[in-house]
# Entry
Amino acid sequence: MIKNIGSYLIVILAICSLAFYSFAPEKQVEFREYSTKGLALNYNMVNDSISHTHAEAYNTDIASSYSPSLGKTYVGFKEALGYKESRGNYFTVNSFGYLGKYQFGKETLKIIGIHNPVQFLKNPELQEKAFLANAERNKWILRRDIKNYVGKKINGVVITESGILAAAHLSGPGSVKKYLRSGGAVGFSDAYGTTISYYMKKFSGYDTSFIKPNKKAKVNKA
# Structure
């Protein structure tokens, strides 16, 4: 009888143990341990080897560092273009007076609502806003040309939307219109000899759908 009672107790204890582990609450994950706070997530693409830059001087610390490839995204597009223009240096001015990471002219800045070049040069966030606003305005001006020419080949280069927008940043949308509508016969080159065709090829194939056409694009400085 005592032996039977002992057996029952063992069975009951085993059942209780299984029930406890079956219904015990799972350990809560501490997501704070995986926070990205404090990490540098805004990368500059600086590993593209080039022989020409609009800037006469650049930040050697930026130029000597490397970061993950941003691929053909919008961020990849603007960072690649910024590196081509100035090697990603927000604070440079070239001998022709073009300013910052994206080498803006003062007249272009006025069009998108920036009238203080000194403030602009000191403010990287403002420069990023200016790049987007200018791209939105150019995309609206060139909307019909984007529709009509993307996928075609001019001077051996397949035309893409990102190539068109990059070329517009280089030369202005009016020059890009003339180039496309003349089948490449009416070209443009800047003071350093960089051509529309070169920019069309170098910056082809990026996803620029993030840029929305906006006739009245202005920089919100707030």
Observations:
- The two ends are 86 Å apart (CA to CA).
- The mean pLDDT is 81.
- Residues 2-34 form one domain.
- The first helix runs from residue 2 to 23.
